[in-house]
Amino acid sequence: MSNVTPLDRAERRWYQMFDSPSPLVKQSPTIIATIIAAILTCMNMDLPFTNMLVALSGVGLVVAATVHAAVLSARRLCDGWIVLLIPMVDIVGLGLFRAGTGGSSSLFGALILLPAVWLAAAPGIRYVVFVGVLSSLALLMPYVNDTSTTSAEWLRGVVAPLVFVAVAAVVNQLSRQQRVRAEQAEDSVAERTKALSENIAMVVQLRDKERQYRELLDSFESLWSSITAQAVVATDRSGTVTAWNPGAERLLGLSVSEALSDVKIDRFFSRDVLSMLAEENTEPTHTDDGEVPGRAELSPGISALFAQADAGMMVDGDIEIVTAGGSTVPARVTVSPHTDGSGTQQGFLFVLTDETRAVEVARMKDEFVGMISHELRTPLSAIIGFLDLLQNDPAQPLTDDQQEFVGIIERNAKRLLNLVGDLLFTAQVESGRFPLEREECDVAELVSSAVASAGPHAQREGIDLVADVGTSPVTVVVDAGRVGQAIDNLLSNAIKFTPRGGTVTARVEQNDGGIELSIADTGIGIPEDEQGMLFTRFFRASTATRNAVPGVGLGLTITRAIVLAHGGSMDVKSQEGVGTEFRFVLPTSPRTESLRAVNRDA
């Protein structure tokens, strides 16, 4: 409800009328003064009309100018020459009225100042000149037809307008300054109005962003509360827990309030695991751990994880974690830096996935594979043995057709026996029962023997098999049988994946701290997006399935397990349609490699 009274509204309209006066308002002082002067002249005998016609003509001009001002005001025309004609006509009219009421002795000559001020207030110095010219004309009118006028009187008609010109100049300058101030005020008002509009728009935008933020926050809280299959834990840079989701509460056994009571993240890792992490991450990284308050209180293992994450390295692995009740749980642990909206690191984010069921399923699977493989191995060995008796029984020799059939049976039985052996071997790797019988041997001789054994196969396939091993022996302490098996697997794969006319090269090189063995072929190659899965059990590349290359996908898994068990490393470089090269490095000084690391990497 408005508190503005009718009096306030009338006062406001009054101010608005004089803030931007119309031509009629500007003309009002002149017409009022002229009417008063005419009335006084008619009523007072001391102020007689010396020339009634001239005086009335002057009044008529002023009245005509007033009518013109009223018409322009009605049409809302307030600027331009058509408006400034009004004070010009007024000056002429008042000059005639002065001439008809006594001339130089008239009391009404000062009335000329009223329209002169109006005209002088117009923008431009030229209107000061107009005031001087018109006021001189008005003051000299009585002397035009008077032959008795003296030079002093003519001089008065010239000097007196100088006063009007001076007044007009002052008014013109003041008006100009006032217009400048008004323009500056209008610009200031416009700027403030624009700033106010921008502020209003910004407030509206901020409210909209606040609404979106609240919606996003609600969605995040709902999502955070719904993550129960994984434990998500946030810490600050010193390792103190700062966020704890329901999955962490379920997996680790602490409530949110308990977890946020100055709990360190290394509480959930056993000493053995922390020691293992510290040993596996001994390479120096460029971090500012010393500058982080509370970081020195952390165990070296967690500090090593933080250093890796700070260095931009991927921290992801299978680690046993310790719950609040003291029990251990196998888990997949991922550590990544946690940053705010501006990109400043606030801490770290731990994602822990319970792997209990996966580990149990893997154990049961390996037990099943081992059991089935063992059960198959015994009858297969018996079949092969009896086939050998059939082929070599002098009392009952086989015909040629029977020999061919028995040969086919024997080849497939041996193939199945080799597959069973591979399954048993992978089961041993997964279960941790992977014995190595190390002895000093010549790796170059192992490669030469493997190439010689694969020679007939390569010759049948039309492939050139080359051994680049040099003349000097390359001795290292390894399990010769297992390393020979790894080389055989790689050579067999290279021959299978190389078309007729291609080349397979086996090479041995000694470098700093290790022996590098490589098997390169000019075969069909492996797609780049599949190379990361080559060492997964039972995985076969799309190029193998398209070209109907026989195999079950265990050879590379077994080869890599053998290399890792010796403390070595293995990688692959391949380009589809060009060829593939597998390289593995065996350390010259043997070291024990934990089966856990082998299993995790495999």
Short synopsis of the structure:
The chain is an alpha+beta fold and 602 residues long.
Commentary on this structure:
The protein has 602 residues and is of the alpha+beta class. It has helices at residues 6-19, 23-43, 52-74, 81-100, 113-120, 126-140, 151-226, 246-252, 256-259, 271-280, 300-310, 356-391, 400-431, 443-460, 480-496, 542-546, 555-565, 595-601; strands at residues 230-236, 241-244, 315-322, 328-339, 345-354, 439-442, 464-468, 475-478, 503-511, 514-521, 569-575, 579-587. The protein has 18 helices and 12 strands. It is rod-shaped, with a radius of gyration of 55 Å. It starts with 5 loop residues before the first helix and ends with a helix. Mean pLDDT is 79; it is low at 283-290 and 592-602.
Features:
five-stranded mixed sheet; alpha+beta; rod-shaped; disordered C terminus; five-stranded antiparallel sheet; 602 residues; 18 helices
Distance between the termini: 80 Å
What is the approximate shape? rod-shaped
Low-confidence stretches: 283-290, 592-602
Major sheet details? 5 strands, antiparallel
Total DSSP E strands: 12
Strand order of the largest sheet: 2-1-5-4-3
SS content category: alpha+beta
Radius of gyration: 55 Å
Helix fraction by DSSP (H/I, runs of at least 4): 55-70%
Number of helices in the DSSP assignment: 18
Classify the beta-strand content into a percent band: 5-15%
Instruction: Indicate the mean pLDDT.
Output: 79
Q: Strand-and-helix sequence, N→C?
A: HHHHHHHEEHHHHEEEHHEHEEHEEHHEEH
